[in-house]
């Protein structure tokens, strides 16, 4: 029996071990008494760094791109705050001001006669967004297949929109996919009301050609005996210095030899208290992470998948029990789960074209943040009268001239706070 491990810079190596005589596939070999330590992985943490701000900024770009003149006042943007993933105690307007290469700020009067921030996209951001739309169009088949496979993982090929919304950034779905994408594929998807009164998305037909997991596709890594017995092993890698104990290694060797159950197959016959069932759970998440364009997602994003995926209670514990397959990053006061095999240090092995677009947005954000910290967006505000709606403006490209805050570092996650509105200067 062969087992595949990742070592050093993501290279794969294997070793063989014999199966213990008298081993029962349904027998439980629990790790309850084996404490697996968490070891920080700086390379994978670096992959997560800045992700929260990047996701929020890209979602705001999508929202503004659909608005007239690509411009909206802050109180309209705040309606989407729940989809941005920003901390609740951080002001949205101040977050936007941190990235003047993406957002340009002006001011409008609200119904109470108070000046409130109004934000629009810079020309550079708008052009990059149009490039993103082109990438999405060029990869539409792949995108639809990912959504189909996600629904095929579920018991009834149904997921609430709320659950899909939590995963749409990771899947590469457009922000307004319900309005702009789903109606174009009425032969594949249907929207309907769930018994709990939520709206759900259903896949109308099963596609056998899609019901092949990534692990099954990687047959080149498996021996002929493994394939014959359906004992597929997961690629494994550990953070340098992890030091897996002999008892854990012995358990892992036997666990890897257990039968592999496809995440697209019916697993109702499996005893949830066995390691065979746990291997199926790992297989489900292994496949789910392969459906995401960067092979990662926040742990909270999968919390609602227990019933749709027919998983037992506390199913996310597999992330801690299998640190050689999943890495849990604790950056930005959240837990992001990364599929280890997908990365060679900080470099993603299979690079989706949308990743390039996102990295260019991140580069623009870093530049704007640094320039603003250096005072390049601190011009004095002026009052104009050509446009009665926008009467106070700052430097084109960002900054309002009335903000005295000066950022002193290059950290995208520095604390920020400000009021959402100001009064008209006299």
From TrEMBL:
Domain of life: Eukaryota
Stored InterPro entries: PORR_domain, PORR_fam
Gene Ontology molecular-function annotations: RNA binding
Pfam families per the UniProt record, alphabetical: PORR
Residues annotated as domain PORR: 39-369
Protein name: PORR domain-containing protein
Organism name: Gossypium mustelinum (Cotton)
């Amino acid at each position: 029996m062969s087992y595949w491990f990742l070592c050093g810079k993501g290279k794969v190596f294997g070793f063989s071990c014999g199966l213990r005589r008298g081993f029962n596939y349904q027998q439980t070999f629990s790790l309850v008494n084996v404490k697996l330590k968490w070891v920080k992985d700086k390379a994978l943490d670096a992959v997560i760094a800045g992700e929260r701000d990047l996701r929020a900024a890209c979602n705001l770009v999508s929202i503004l791109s659909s608005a007239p003149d690509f411009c909206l006042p802050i109180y309209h943007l705040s309606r989407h705050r729940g989809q941005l993933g920003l901390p609740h105690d951080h002001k949205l307007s101040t977050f936007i001001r941190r990235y003047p290469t993406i957002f340009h700020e002006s001011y409008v009067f609200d119904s109470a006669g108070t000046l409130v921030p109004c934000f629009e996209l810079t020309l550079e951001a708008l052009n990059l967004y149009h490039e993103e739309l082109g990438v999405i169009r060029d990869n539409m088949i792949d995108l639809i297949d990912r959504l189909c496979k996600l629904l095929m993982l579920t018991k009834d090929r149904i997921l609430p929109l709320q659950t899909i919304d939590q995963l749409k950034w990771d899947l590469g779905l457009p922000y307004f996919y319900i309005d702009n994408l789903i109606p174009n594929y009425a032969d594949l998807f249907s929207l309907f009301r769930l018994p709990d009164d939520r709206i759900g998305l259903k896949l109308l037909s099963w596609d056998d050609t899609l019901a092949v997991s990534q692990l099954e596709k990687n047959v080149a890594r498996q021996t002929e005996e493994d394939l014959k017995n359906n004992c597929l092993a997961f690629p494994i890698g550990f953070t340098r210095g992890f030091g897996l104990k002999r008892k854990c290694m012995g358990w892992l060797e036997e666990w890897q030899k257990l039968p592999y159950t496809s995440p697209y197959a019916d697993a109702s016959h499996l005893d949830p208290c066995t390691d065979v069932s746990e291997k199926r759970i790992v297989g489900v998440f292994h496949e789910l992470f392969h459906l995401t364009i960067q092979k990662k997602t926040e742990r909270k994003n999968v919390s609602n998948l227990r019933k749709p995926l027919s998983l037992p209670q506390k199913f996310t514990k597999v992330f801690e029990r299998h640190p050689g397959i999943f890495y849990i990053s604790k950056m930005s006061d959240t837990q992001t789960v990364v599929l280890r095999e997908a990365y060679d240090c900080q470099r993603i092995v299979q690079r989706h074209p949308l990743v390039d677009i996102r990295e260019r947005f991140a580069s623009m954000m870093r530049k704007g943040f640094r320039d603003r910290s250096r005072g390049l967006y601190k011009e004095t505000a002026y009052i104009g009268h050509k446009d009665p709606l926008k009467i106070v403006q700052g430097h084109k490209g960002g900054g309002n001239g009335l903000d005295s805050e000066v950022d002193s570092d290059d950290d995208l996650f520095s604390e920020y706070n400000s009021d959402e509105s100001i009064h008209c200067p006299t």
